[in-house]
């Protein structure tokens, strides 16, 4: 029996491509470990693995993206902008997008009062704009969580998209948030641990333990199969959520590069999240191109 349930919104991506690929990097350095352990006095080995991002992984990822001439989105906490200004300038100079990822990267799913979050955004937006010349238009809160007020706050501040773990809908297609039955100019690119590097590569020596170190071929197979499935369905995006400290190791970065080559040869439209959001918003505007099947 064939289902009559809708499957996505039937979007066609630019250039007749069947699937949008959003390469996203959360540039957290050791703030990832601080959030995971919930403390600042990290064991040296764990802190050091976080610092692999700014010390080595980021540069390798940027070189790889340049070789493949694909754009990416970097979610960067304000604190990281202030600590590694040259790194963030290099990201922007290479043509990639820099987006909001908290200020200290410390909420991680815990309730944050609205006024505190306004202050976080003020500080982080200022830090990003000082280095890139642009205010961010996209948001991924630390841990990928949203607060109850997040959507209203993003709309109020002129953001164009969110990329979260638990958004209004859980699906593989891009949609706009709605308010009072009306679509708003705010797209969602939801994420899932299956398409993150963290579940496969995050490793700690002390509790709470997370001792993942997957075979790269196995990770590529999961991501490539998911890409193939979404491309076959024809109205989806694929958002890879990565960290320079994890995917930036030589062998893993090579695996990602090989996958990017495969995806390019098989119909991917590579875009920053802002580019994809602009496309989804324009398509949903009254004068927008329908593009539906
Ligand atoms: Zn993060």
Give the fraction of residues assigned to helices: 40-55%
CATH class: Alpha Beta
User: Which stretches of 5+ consecutive residues score pLDDT under 50?
Assistant: 289-293
* The CATH homology group name: Glycoside hydrolase/deacetylase
Which descriptor suits the 3D outline?
globular
Secondary structure topology:
Blueprint: E1 19-26, H1 31-37, H2 44-68, E2 73-76, H3 78-83, H4 85-93, E3 97-100, H5 114-132, E4 138-139, H6 150-156, E5 161-162, E6 175-179, E7 182-188, H7 198-201, H8 216-233, E8 236-242, H9 244-247, H10 250-265, E9 268-270, H11 273-284
Parallel strand pairs: 1-2, 1-8, 1-9, 2-3, 4-5, 5-7
Antiparallel strand pairs: 6-7
The chain binds zinc ion.
Produce a short descriptive summary:
The chain is of the alpha/beta class and 293 residues long. The chain has one domain: TIM Barrel (Alpha-Beta Barrel), CATH 3.20.20.370. The chain has helices spanning 31-37, 44-68, 78-83, 85-93, 114-132, 150-156, 198-201, 216-233, 244-247, 250-265, 273-284; strands at residues 19-26, 73-76, 97-100, 138-139, 161-162, 175-179, 182-188, 236-242, 268-270.
Structure write-up:
This protein has 293 residues and is of the alpha/beta class. The protein has a single domain (14-284), classed as TIM Barrel (Alpha-Beta Barrel). The chain has eleven helices and nine strands. The strands form two sheets. Strands 1, 2, 3, 8 and 9 form a five-stranded parallel beta sheet that branches. A four-stranded mixed beta sheet has the order 4-5-7-6, sandwiched between helices. Helix 2 packs parallel to helix 10 (250-265) and helix 8 (216-233) packs parallel to helix 10. The two termini are 21 Å apart. Mean pLDDT is 91; it is low at 289-293. It binds zinc ion (ZN). Zinc ion (ZN) binds next to loops.
């Amino acid at each position: 029996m064939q289902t009559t349930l809708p499957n996505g919104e039937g979007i066609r991506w630019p250039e007749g491509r069947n699937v949008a690929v959003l390469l996203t990097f959360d540039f957290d350095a050791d703030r990832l470990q601080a959030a995971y352990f919930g403390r600042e006095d990290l064991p040296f080995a764990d802190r050091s693995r976080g610092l692999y991002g700014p010390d080595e992984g980021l540069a390798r990822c940027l070189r790889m993206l340049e070789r493949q001439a694909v754009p990416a989105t970097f979610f960067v906490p304000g604190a990281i902008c202030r600590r590694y200004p040259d790194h963030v300038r290099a990201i922007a100079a290479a043509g990639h997008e820099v987006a909001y990822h908290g200020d200290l990267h410390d909420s991680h799913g815990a309730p944050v009062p609205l006024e505190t979050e306004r202050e976080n955004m003020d500080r982080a937006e200022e830090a990003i704009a000082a280095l890139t010349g642009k205010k961010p238009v996209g948001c991924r809160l630390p841990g990928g969580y949203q607060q109850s007020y997040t959507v209203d706050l993003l709309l109020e501040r002129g953001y164009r998209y969110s990329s979260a773990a638990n958004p209004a809908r859980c699906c593989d297609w891009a949609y706009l948030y709605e308010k009072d039955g009306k679509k708003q100019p705010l797209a969602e690119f939801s994420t899932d641990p299956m398409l993150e590097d963290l579940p496969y590569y995050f490793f700690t020596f002390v509790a709470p333990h997370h001792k993942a170190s997957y075979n790269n071929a196995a990770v590529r197979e999961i991501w490539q199969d998911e890409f193939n499935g979404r491309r076959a369905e024809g109205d989806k995006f694929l958002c890879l959520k990565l960290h320079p400290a994890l995917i930036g190791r030589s062998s893993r970065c090579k695996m990602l590069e090989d996958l990017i080559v495969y995806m390019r040869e098989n119909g991917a439209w590579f875009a920053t999240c802002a580019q994809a959001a602009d496309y989804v918003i324009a398509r949903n505007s009254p004068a927008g191109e329908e593009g539906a099947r």
